[in-house]
Structures are given as C-alpha cells and as structure tokens.
Design goal:
Blueprint (H helix, E strand, L loop, with lengths): L5 H14 L6 H8 L3 H13 L3 E4 L5 E4 L8 H7 L18 H25 L4 H17 L7 H6 L4
Antiparallel strand pairs: 1-2
Helix pairs in contact: 2-3
C-alpha cells in the first residue's frame, strides 16, 4: 500500500514559502516536490480556503503565506487539508458476520482512534515556527560541517535569510 505524503509535502512547501522573499509559483513549488503543478494547486486550495496562504495570478504572482508561523500548528495544516486519516490500517471486512472478525475489527478500530487522538493532540502543540527553527539549526550545523545550499528549490527561487 502506497503511503500518502500530502501532509508532509504541504509542510515542506510551507517552510519553503516561509524562507522566500516573495510569491512562489506553483511550478517552483511543484519542482521541489517533484510533482505536477496541478497536484500542488489542488493541495494548496485547502490551505487557501483555511486562510493559511493566498495566491495571485499573473506576472509576479504566486503563493504567499498569510498565517503567522508561531500561531499556526501542524494540526491547523492537517485540518486545512481536510483532516485525512493519520493512521492507515486496513480491515479484512467492513461489516463482517464472523464474530472473530468483529472482535479483531473493534480492537483495531479502538486502537486507531486512540492513536489518531494522541497524534492530533501532539500536532496541536507543534507550530510552523518550531519547524522553521529546527530547519535553521540544521542549516547552521550543515554549513559548519562544510555544506552549502539547503535544497534544490533554494537554488531556483531564493536565498535563505
């Protein structure tokens, strides 16, 4: 089963946008994720509807953050994506007649609900500012070790602050 990386992808894009000095086009952001700009725009539409980003068309347009990093949690971003399931655990049958399957499904369902509740609670405590601070600490260590650029998008769109 293929894992869904949309949540991770959107967080990645938001941090790139936070490092930028101006609007980032769908083409630039999609290149960083190695995906199609149409896919990126679909992802970003939920963030726009939630007020986390804005977009402008035309020359000089693109996506811009419209939220405060220190007030926006990972849970906010997750909800802006439509609150997709966080734990992917399949069941053999949705409505089984087998009593064994019923017992297994109930135990697994309860475990998934508890895991998702705990994960959502944790996501509510981590801000985009915390991710940005972590990135900057990693960048400083990387540069101290002789490394240079921080990502392919940086080379195409903007320099770090």
């Amino acid at each position: 089963m293929k894992q869904n990386s949309q949540f991770s992808d959107v967080l990645h894009v938001l941090l790139h946008m936070a490092e930028g000095d101006g609007p980032a086009t769908s083409d630039m952001l999609a290149a960083a994720l190695q995906t199609n700009p149409v896919v990126l725009r679909r992802l970003m539409s939920g963030l726009r509807d939630a007020g986390l980003v804005t977009s402008a068309k035309g020359h000089g347009g693109g996506w811009v953050l419209s939220c405060e990093l220190d007030r926006t949690t990972l849970r906010d971003v997750h909800e802006a994506l439509g609150a997709p399931g966080l734990v992917a655990l399949g069941f053999r049958e949705d409505r089984p007649e087998c009593l064994v399957a019923q017992a297994v499904n109930e135990a697994l369902s309860n475990a998934v609900q508890q895991a998702e509740a705990a994960l959502l609670a944790r996501l509510g405590t981590v801000t985009l500012a915390a991710l940005s601070q972590d990135f900057h600490a990693r960048l400083a260590r990387h540069r101290a070790a002789g490394g240079q650029g921080w990502h392919q998008l940086q080379e195409h769109t903007h320099e770090t602050r």
